[in-house]
């Protein structure tokens, strides 16, 4: 884990109280909140996501944002539209 991950984790887990092991589903696939934050900490070099999360007013809004972002990431990987799909595909789990 890198420093940026811990900054994200502080906001998401501590400030908003979101469970890192919560599974966000899309079709038969899921990604945990923790896996998403790890990916963001690697890909988001200018910390846009951290800035956005800090602006959200409450847990409900943060949860909506994270759910939407994870769903979008899974869709992108499944459609092959993501430049980092090989990395992210390792993190996406399939439920049968």
Automatic annotation (TrEMBL):
Origin superkingdom: Bacteria
Protein name: Uncharacterized protein
């Amino acid at each position: 884990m890198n420093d940026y991950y811990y900054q994200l984790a502080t906001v998401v887990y501590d400030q908003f109280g979101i469970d890192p092991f919560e599974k966000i589903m899309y079709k038969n696939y899921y990604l945990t909140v923790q896996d998403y934050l790890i990916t963001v900490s690697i890909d988001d070099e200018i910390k846009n996501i951290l800035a956005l999360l800090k602006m959200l007013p409450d847990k409900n809004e943060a949860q909506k944002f994270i759910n939407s972002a994870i769903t979008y990431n899974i869709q992108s990987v499944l459609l092959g539209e993501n430049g980092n799909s090989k990395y992210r595909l390792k993190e996406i789990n399939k439920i049968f």
